[in-house]
Design goal:
Layout lengths: L1 E6 L8 E5 L4 E4 L8 H6 L13 E3 L5 H4 L2 H6 L5 E4 L1 H27 L28 H7 L3 E3 L5 E3 L4 E7 L7 E8 L5 E6 L22 E5 L10 H18 L3 E4 L5 H14 L8 E4 L1 H12 L6 H8 L10 E3 L3 H5 L8 E4 L9 H8 L6 E4 L8 H6 L4 E4 L2 E4 L3 E4 L9 H9 L7 E5 L3 H15 L2 E3 L6 E3 L2
Parallel strand pairs: 3-4, 4-5, 5-6, 10-11, 11-20, 12-15, 12-16, 13-14, 13-15, 16-19, 20-21
Antiparallel strand pairs: 1-2, 1-22, 2-3, 7-8, 8-9, 9-10, 17-18
Helix pairs in contact: 4-8
The structure holds zinc ion (2 copies).
């Protein structure tokens, strides 16, 4: 039995793992690489397997770094089925349509521009890497719509036996709504069965809305993420108290609170916390605007699947409280609606993109960053080189839409909102397997972080650990 690491190896993005049991071929995830020009280039490399020969794709969740290259499979002859949960299918659809739309738009804009030898200003929306030629879209809206006909959805907890040597069960990974880990019982041509577990992205324990990650008790091989394999998150309760006091202080100053946020999960989590602040009368008379059509779309998906919520969120529903709505909460639709927020004062605006690399947050920053009454609250990780990172790093002046602007706003970073397990959560999850795994592979982490985590776990659990390189092939005995 062969396992190949076709992405998410010594890097966080591009998750894709190819398995050939000798009878059946499948992959787990088919994510896009993101972050730098070099990583983006990998999206245009051919797959190290033939998509036309794949029987299945198992999708752990709807984030772009796990689903972003799915439409390419179909374009290259994939005829199998894509297996995931209902929310993951619907979230993947939103994410992929957004990506296709951005690529089409950017390419159209770039193609229409007179060329001056500089090759345009490069990059697709979130992925602006400076001056390089904008490539044709990897796929279009039509390709995404075609892809959606290949999905089959299953609930958590049911063992499904395809009677071809592949049996699987999805468990709750507690990362974003519908996120799954996969347990596989794989039988090769000689009739030997091995249990292989893919963690997908694991959530932080105690995270809002979603449940804590399920524990798995036994496996021959484990493929585990390691994004935060070398650090622990800040305490969630402290984060919430800090958040509340920032909101109150800004209200007193008569300023606006800007929250740059990712559209999937993070935005819903922030709305969830704000709902509790307002419903519990910790805060009042401070209008909240969700200025992100993609986040609004995702709220709709969250509303459709309350059975995927954790106990606390379900209890709110039972009490008759909609966790994603409260008095003073507004959602903007059109770009005109968004621009009308310019005159507002004393309000909270949640907008994308999460790292201020594009989207509606830009005109809100343009409008507010020069005022000392404003608070900018970062609730997610800011990659080096992004506008968000520059603001977090305290640069006195930044460029917004080509205009130099003085940063007079108060800048805050809230560390407790991560949707990823930290080292303690990962350790707890891995301990669930006891000494049963023959080998544990650390993926979905930067090389040094994954290695540190691998070394720590090797010592603590006395199991064999390994950090695979990109495209490395291993045999599962
Ligand atoms: Zn994820
Ligand atoms: Zn991921």
């Amino acid at each position: 039995m062969k396992l190949q690491f076709c992405g998410g190896a010594k890097t966080v993005t591009g998750s894709c793992f190819y398995v050939d049991t000798g009878k059946i071929k499948f992959i787990v995830d088919c994510g896009a690489f993101q972050g730098t020009k070099e990583l983006d280039d990998l999206n245009y490399e051919p797959f190290p397997f033939n998509p036309a020969e794949l029987d299945y794709v198992f999708l752990t969740h709807g984030h772009f770094d796990h689903c972003g290259r799915l439409p390419l499979l179909v374009k290259q002859g994939f005829k199998g089925r894509i297996i995931t949960t209902q929310p993951s299918r619907d979230i993947a659809r939103i994410v992929l349509l957004d990506a296709a739309g951005l690529q089409e738009e950017e390419y159209k804009r770039w193609s229409a521009k007179p060329k001056n030898g500089n090759g345009g200003n490069g990059g697709y929306g979130e992925r602006g890497y400076g001056n390089h030629e904008v490539r044709p879209p990897m796929y279009t809206t039509d390709d995404v719509n075609e892809l959606m006909t290949y999905f089959d959805v299953y609930p958590y907890g049911d063992s499904v036996d395809f009677r071809n040597g592949v049996e699987f069960r999805m468990r709750d990974a507690g990362h974003i709504l519908g996120s799954a880990m996969f347990e596989f019982w794989l039988t090769n041509g000689d009739g030997r069965t091995r249990k292989v577990v893919f963690s997908g992205d694991l959530g932080q324990s105690g995270q809002r809305i979603v449940k804590d990650p399920d524990l798995v008790r036994e496996a021959d091989y484990v493929i585990v993420e390691s994004t935060y394999g070398n650090r622990t998150h800040r305490n969630k309760d402290e984060t919430l108290l800090e958040f509340l006091s920032i909101l109150k202080d800004t209200q007193q100053r008569g300023g606006n609170v800007l929250i740059p946020s990712f559209a999937i999960e993070r935005a819903q989590e922030i709305i969830y916390e704000l709902n509790l602040f307002f419903e519990n009368r910790l805060l009042a008379d401070m209008p909240v605007y969700l200025d992100s059509p993609m986040a609004s779309e995702t709220v709709k998906i969250f509303r459709q699947f309350p059975n995927f919520y954790d106990e606390d969120a379900q209890r709110l529903l039972e009490k008759g409280d909609d966790p994603f709505h409260f008095a003073g909460f507004h959602e903007t639709e059109s770009a005109e609606d968004s621009k009308r927020l310019i005159d507002k004062r004393g309000c909270i605006i949640i907008a994308g993109s999460g790292m201020c690399t594009g989207g509606r947050i830009l005109h809100h920053l343009e409008n507010n960053i020069g005022s000392s009454r404003t608070s900018i609250v970062f609730v997610g990780y800011q990659v080096e080189g992004t506008l968000g990172r520059k603001i977090v790093d305290g640069e006195p002046e930044v460029y917004i839409k080509g205009k130099r602007m003085e940063v007079r706003a108060q800048v805050h970073t809230l560390g407790g909102f991560s949707a990823h397990a930290d080292q303690n959560d990962l350790r707890y999850w891995l301990r669930g397997f006891g000494h049963t795994p023959r080998r544990v592979f650390m993926v979905h982490g930067e090389a040094d972080v994954a290695q540190e985590f691998a070394d720590t776990m090797k010592e603590e659990l006395s199991v064999d650990t390994h950090v695979p390189s990109l495209n490395e092939v291993v045999t599962l005995e």
